[in-house]
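By convention, each integer encodes one residue's backbone shape. The lines below illustrate.
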Amino acid sequence: MSETLFISHRIPFPPDRGDKIRSHHILKRLAARGPVHVATFADDDADFDEEAELAIAVRSYKLVRRSTPLVVAGIKSLLRGEPVSLPAFYSDKLARYVVATLAQHPIDTIYVFSGQMGQYVPEDFAGRVIVDFVDVDSVKFEAYAWQNRGVERWIHAREARLLQREEARLAARAETSLLISAQEAALFAARLPAVQRMASDIRVVGNGIDADFFNPADTTSEPRLAHMPGPRLIFTGQMDYPPNITAALRLAQIILPLVQRELPEASCHIVGRNPDEDLLALHGKQGCHVWGRVDDIRPWLSAATQAVVPLEIARGVQNKVLEAMAMGLPVVLTSGAANGIPATGGKDFAIADSDEAIAAQIVALHRDPAAAAAMSTAARNFVVEQQSWQAALAPLDKLLDAPNPPVRHAA
């Protein structure tokens, strides 16, 4: 039986943040097809608590704590002329595990989850290489560059430029490059040299949602939130991720006060692990509550009246949006946050980009319960009918069912 080597930048357990949700479901699908070996990183002790789950799911694995300080990674990247992301996610232990696994097992496919892990693929590997970029990281760093000045702008612009070069290298090495949406795939292709673009196999494997798990009918609302007056606006996610921090601060400091001019009892609720100091400082002030990490996001979504996703930098498909929609929440989001979700604006969710327009949508939905209820129903129906993981991963099955390609060598 053929076997797969899965190389991921984070352990795919628990599926409690966007990238880990995707990697978790893809790993499960691969494991259902045959033996899988996993090389991956743990960010903290909580990740090591999931090691038993990983061990049950796969044939073998290597889990290593990611511990390279950013300063050290930065120095190495300058000396080597490569993006900081590569030394930041490099481990001799993982590299040795990859070499040993390829030598000891009949691996016919290497699945690379996230571009910075492509550095572990040996040049002489003769099987299928799939690189799941998820979204176009280099574009994200270009956006960071535009948002900053001075040295920080130079750092982010350099990372964007070198990541784009690495993305092109991996697209040449891979049999297939995967992106999370048609928009990301088109953007990725457009940034490749013209000749390479014609030769590269770039496909879309989207994200799904477990609508049976995210089901408002089976969820008890979190009482600490449910007992507050409305509207109760919720923003969820990993709260040490810069775009999420920026969006949460925007909601709490700009959008919420605009809403409170019309609806004085409105409150916003930031829910997600590792909130930074700027966010924690807002807790309990002017209707803002920062709850940090929670064991289960569903009771919090159930207790809210609207989800607000005012992301300024958004790549790929936002799982936080799909989760809120599955829970029947009206969602007000920016056009960037709606990217890659084939729902209908004004029906399944409400799209607005300026602070004033977002606040106006929130107020309008609160004052029109019938419209809010209709959007709630439409959102839930959209997820149930169109966004299941089974449907999302069907293109991956077709790809893996195809005969192994001829040998391709690194560019």
